[in-house]
UniProtKB/TrEMBL annotation:
It comes from Rossellomorea pakistanensis. Belongs to the UPF0473 family. InterPro entries: UPF0473. It comes from the Bacteria. HAMAP family: UPF0473. This is UPF0473 protein JOC86_001317.
């Protein structure tokens, strides 16, 4: 994945591919990582259920290669991601 992409393909634990819409990306100087927040394509806000938003760290690939999604490693990272998501959602409501 590259910064600015709108859709990514995520492969789950069972090897199934799922196309996802990128909500937003950001970088953290504190952790020295880039992060992406995304949700499964086809999840529609008009559904009764809330959209499940996923987050991953990502390492950009070398030129011509795709980057790699990595799991979030610490509770401190999750807290920062949650804060960024809340700020993003608050701005979207305005």
């Amino acid at each position: 994945m590259e910064h600015g992409e709108k859709q990514i393909t995520v492969i789950d634990e069972e090897g199934n591919e799922q196309l996802c819409e990128v909500l937003f990306t950001f970088e953290s100087d504190k952790f020295g990582k880039s992060y992406v927040l995304y949700y499964p394509l086809g999840a529609d806000e008009t559904d009764e259920e809330e959209i499940e938003i996923h987050a991953s760290a990502f390492a950009p690939g070398d030129e011509g290669e795709e980057g790699e999604l990595k799991p979030i490693e610490t509770e401190e990272e999750w807290d920062m991601i949650e804060e960024m998501l809340n700020t993003f959602l608050d701005e979207e409501e305005e």
